[in-house]
Amino acid sequence: MAITESRSLPPQFVEDLGKDYATQLTGLTSQPMDTTKFQPMVAGQDQAQTDAYNLATTQGQGIGAYAPYLSQAGAYGTAAAGLSGPQGYSSFMSPYQQDVIDATMSEYDTQAAKGITGIGQQAAMSGNLGGGREGVMRSEYQNKSDMNRALLQAGMLQQGFGQAQQAANTAFGQQQQLGADQQRMAQLVPNLYGSDIATLQGAGTNQQLQAQNILDQQREANRMAAYEPYERLGYMGAGMGNVMGGAMGQYQSQVTPNQSPLQQAMGIASLGYGAYKGKIFQ
């Protein structure tokens, strides 16, 4: 006996779509995805950041920033100390001062001797040569000459000392001023270094952020490119589901399959049994 079976079959274009979809899906998912193209990446330090780090570690921080200035300030202080005290002027005395004094005093002695000679001449002219009056005149002249000589010599020494002392005081003030300047530099330089470091760090950070943004955008672009085939197949699969859902209810196929030998034998037997029953009950 023939059996009639009713099945809902998709139209041919749906079947073709299914085969194409399966082929693409198998080919796509059979290959491993290269995730290195969109793995997270960190932008390296900008050169300005490197310069800021080097400046901070070598000069801008700690004792290295101000120690040279403190050392120089100490040297100026030591030099200033050497210019004070009773011998502070000595290094400023002119090396030619004693020569000037010696020459001046020699000339003075020459002139003083001429004065003594003049006294003798006056005594001879007045008839007192070798007398008591000549002796008094010589004694008075010599005392006055010696006093003038001492005053002259002291004046020249005092003048030289005063000039040397003034020069020593000037140098002392200069050394103190230089030391104070170095002290101020010791305080100022670290701040200047800190300002430079902050400027470099800020500029470098901005550049690093820009570089990081570029890397992130490139990584996102690579990720989108890598997943684009999967998303396209996803849209395709969703669309096929809608198409196949509508097409399956519209097409019907009536199929009568051929009977097998066993089915045919059982059918013949049932016909014979039916005829036999009919004869019995007649």
Summary of the model, kept short:
The protein has 282 residues and is mostly helical.
Distance between the termini: 26 Å
User: Helix count, per DSSP?
Assistant: 6
Poorly predicted runs are 248-258, 260-266, 268-282
Mean pLDDT: 77
What fraction of the residues are assigned to beta strands by DSSP? under 5%
How many strand elements? 2
Radius of gyration: 62 Å
Give the overall shape, derived from the CA principal axes.
rod-shaped
Q: What would you call the structural class? A: mainly alpha
Strand/helix succession: EHHHHHEH
**Widest beta sheet: strand line-up:** 1-2
**Percent helix range:** over 70%
> How many structural units, i.e. domains?
1
| Most strands sheet | 2 strands, antiparallel
Task: Give an overview in words.
With 282 residues, the protein is mainly alpha-helical. It has one domain (33-248). Helices cover 78% and strands 2% of the residues. It has helices at 12-29, 47-60, 63-82, 97-126, 132-248, 261-280; strands at 5-7, 253-255. Strands 1-2 form a two-stranded antiparallel sheet. Helix 1 packs antiparallel against helix 5, helix 2 packs antiparallel against helix 5 and helix 3 (63-82) packs antiparallel against helix 5 (132-248). The chain starts with a strand and ends with a helix. Mean pLDDT is 77; it is low at 248-258, 260-266 and 268-282.
Q: What labels describe this entry?
A:
mainly alpha
Helices and strands, with pairings:
Elements: E1 5-7, H1 12-29, H2 47-60, H3 63-82, H4 97-126, H5 132-248, E2 253-255, H6 261-280
Antiparallel strand pairs: 1-2
